[in-house]
Amino acid sequence: MKVEKEHLKKMFPNLARELEGREHTTSITSIRSNLQAEEGASSERFSSYMPDVIDFLRRCDNDQQAEEIINYLENRGELDGQYARKLRSQLKERGVRSFGSRKEEDYYSKQGDL
What we know:
114 residues; rod-shaped
């Protein structure tokens, strides 16, 4: 559909002004020529990252799940008793969200794309 410029200006003056102006433009400075190589590079951000107890707690939906994570890691010897008690105390006093916002599914692959 072809619309004359003057007709567009009369019908939609703000839109015409935005289209003619350069205030809200974004320049593209690069392109992806090899998609597979670029995908591999973006996921390298977390390639050697090992999640810790806080990362696991941030995936919990509620305090009960967080308590199970703490117990599990303590029983496996991945948390010492003193640190586990500190985490339980924080969990009891302030709840699971005191460890940070919830990490959703595919958190690391989404963050790797930044």
